[in-house]
Write a structure and sequence with these properties.
This protein is mainly alpha-helical. It has a domain of 69 residues. It contains 7 helices and no strands. It is flat, with a radius of gyration of 28 Å. The relative contact order is 0.05.
C-alpha cells in the first residue's frame, strides 16, 4: 500500500485538476479529504477473495460429503485407534499458545502469570477434585503473580 511519503507532488496533485502519476495519487491518498473516501483494493482483488472463499467452501463440503458417500457403521481400525487422541490434541493446540503468549506476544509479565495460574489450577484440581476451587485458585494465583510482577517493574 502506498504511503503519504511516496508522492513528491502531494501539494501539486491536490490543487491541480489532473492528478499526478504516482500510485498514491491515483488511489486517492493524496487528494484532500481522501482519508474517508480512499479507493478500495485493486480491481479484481475482491473477485480473487470470492474465488478463494468459494474454493474453501467447496473443499470443506467435499471433505464432509466424503464421509456420507462412504457411509460405514464404524471407521477403519487405524482411524478408530487414533480418534480418542483427537480431543486432547485439539485442546492442547488451543491452550498452549494461550498460555505461552496470552495476548499474542510472549513476555515475562504476560506469560509467567498464565503459567503459574495453570499450574496452580492443576494442583488444586488434583488435590480437591472440585472445579470451582481449581478455577478460582488459578485466577487468584494469576492476579497475585501479575501484581507482584507489576510491582517489581
Amino acid at each position: 500500500m502506498a504511503s503519504r511519503s511516496e508522492c513528491s507532488a502531494r501539494s501539486r496533485c491536490a490543487s491541480t485538476a489532473r492528478p499526478s502519476r504516482c500510485r498514491a495519487c491515483r488511489s486517492g491518498w493524496c487528494s484532500p479529504g481522501s482519508r474517508s473516501r480512499r479507493a478500495g483494493p485493486l480491481p479484481g482483488a475482491s473477485l480473487d477473495e470470492l474465488l478463494i472463499l468459494a474454493a474453501i467452501g467447496i473443499g470443506t463440503y467435499a471433505m464432509r460429503a466424503a464421509f456420507l458417500v462412504t457411509a460405514r457403521s464404524e471407521p477403519p481400525a487405524r482411524v478408530a485407534r487414533l480418534l480418542p487422541h483427537v480431543g486432547p490434541a485439539v485442546l492442547g493446540a488451543f491452550t498452549l499458545p494461550a498460555l505461552l503468549a496470552p495476548r499474542g506476544t510472549a513476555s515475562v509479565t504476560e506469560t509467567v502469570p498464565a503459567l503459574v495460574a495453570a499450574a496452580a489450577a492443576w494442583v488444586l484440581w488434583r488435590r480437591t477434585e472440585r472445579l470451582p476451587v481449581a478455577l478460582f485458585g488459578g485466577l487468584g494465583a494469576c492476579w497475585l503473580v501479575g501484581g507482584l510482577l507489576a510491582a517489581v517493574r
